[in-house]
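The protein record minuted underneath.
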Amino acid sequence: MLDVLDRAYTARQYEKGLSSAAAAERRLKFGENALAKERKTRPLKIFLGQFKDVMVMILLAATVISFFLGEFYDALTIVIIVLINALLGFVQEYKTEKTLQALKSMAAPTAKAWRDGKLVSIPASELVPDDIIGELVREMFFGADIRKGFLLDGFPRTIAQAKGLDKALSGVGIPLEKVFFLRVPKEVLISRIAHRQTCPACGEAYHMSGKKPKVTGICDQCASELVQRSDDTPETVSKRIEVYNEQTEPLIEYYRTQGILIELDGTSDVETLQGQIDSALKAA
């Protein structure tokens, strides 16, 4: 059984892992398995960021009010307190950023992957899609009792991965019962992804045509500046959809012929979709 699970994450041609040539081809197509390097935050921006805190804004407002009321001593006292707080916050955040940069420069992560029929250690940045997915599937099978049921989101994405999953499930005697396909028009997908923003501090998500922040570009929860992922541009999203059409769309017919595909309108509201999915799962 270990042998079956170890080799089942891809189609038969990849039972011994990828060849070096195939791995190089995928790395050229998909890029390195590494996060894009972020631009360093300038010290001035870090310092000015200390004044975005709600409490600091309240104190600054109190300073203005005290000044107009002629309470110059109180106004000066508040300004000194705010500046001291900003300086302490700046020093702490600046040191933290420098420490993280130093750790990143020292890190040299490696991973295990099958290459040319052998399990070898390679830089993590050289992992390609089937390497990563294969490890995740194996961890899931070994680390949990999937006989109680399991849910896969976004996997498989290719016919090869689907066949590998079928073999793995066959090896443990568990059939795949339902496959949900949420159909959404291309223009809606582009709008959903290209207009979303997230808070790098607390992780809160926003959407410019749906869940908008109270103040444009500022997180409602922690007042941090919102950011947009570099790959959430309309051009990048369109390219990702092209990859989907080429590699993933064939899975629709693959699972339809097995009689387990359930197609739903992905433009419906969350409550409607949740109800439809719950009903389908209960009917299994």
Q: What stands out?
A: The chain has three domains: 1-30+127-173, 43-106, 177-284. Residues 72-106 form the longest helix (35 residues). The longest strand covers residues 110-115.
